[in-house]
Specification:
Elements (H helix, E strand, L loop, with lengths): L1 E7 L11 H11 L3 E7 L10 H4 L7 E4 L2 E4 L1 H11 L7 H30 L7 H23 L12 H11 L5 H5 L2 H11 L2 H9 L5 H4 L1
Parallel strand pairs: 1-2
Antiparallel strand pairs: 1-3, 3-4
């Protein structure tokens, strides 16, 4: 049985942004059966056992599939899509998938996550007047570069939606509240809306953070 170690009781500023959404979304896209091990963030349960036994960093999410124990969303999504037979067999095509997965996590996510952090938690932190405009400019550059990479493709690898798109969408989501930022990048904005309009995404958002009451229903 696949189990997602997921969060509930999250602070309002990060509701909908916790990375367990990526795993739930992937499972919904793939039509795989799964359950939850809910963790109360307010009680720091993610930093305790049994989550710590899977994820030595005490982060969210963790994941188990029988004897398979994984952390890091990129690794979990790759595992799920490979389990479902949806990772390209051709080495070149597989490399293309991996490059976009890594780009979402390593190149695009950092400035968008930093914007979310400054807006949600660091509004009065010293240095904002200098650092925040720099982050916005980096994010604008990343959106422009993403548009170049997308071209006229509906998704990162062409016509087929996949794990790279899940990672990219949720990375961009960190600055979703900055509407003006996306107005400068209509192609990226359309891509984001296209991904977020998928039924599996909407289902995943509805399931994220529900907590133990979902199991009792």
């Amino acid at each position: 049985m696949i189990t997602v170690y997921a969060a509930y009781n999250v602070p309002p500023p990060v509701k909908g942004l916790v990375r367990d959404l990526r795993v739930i979304w992937a499972l919904e896209e793939l039509g795989m059966a799964y359950g939850f091990h809910w963790m109360d963030i307010g009680k720091a349960e993610h930093r305790q056992e049994p989550n710590r036994a899977i994820n030595p960093f005490g982060k969210i999410p963790s994941f188990s599939d029988g004897p398979v124990k994984l952390f890091e969303t990129g690794a979990i999504l790759h595992y799920l899509y490979e389990k479902a037979g949806k990772i390209p067999a051709d080495p070149a095509r597989r490399g293309e998938l991996l490059q976009w997965m890594f780009a979402a996590l390593n190149t695009v996510e950092p400035p968008f996550l930093d914007i979310a952090t400054w807006d949600a938690f660091w509004k009065d932190r010293p240095g904002r007047a200098v650092r925040y405009p720099e982050l916005v400019e980096v994010a604008k550059t990343r959106l422009s570069e993403l548009e170049r990479g997308l071209g006229k493709k509906p998704f990162l690898l062409g016509d087929d939606f996949g794990p790279a798109d899940i990672l990219m969408t949720t990375a961009l989501n960190f600055a979703r509240h900055q509407v003006a930022l996306f107005e400068h990048a209509p192609v990226a904005q359309a891509y984001l809306e296209r991904c977020r309009s998928r039924p599996a995404y909407k289902t995943a958002v509805g399931k994220q953070g529900v907590g133990p009451k979902a199991d009792a229903a």
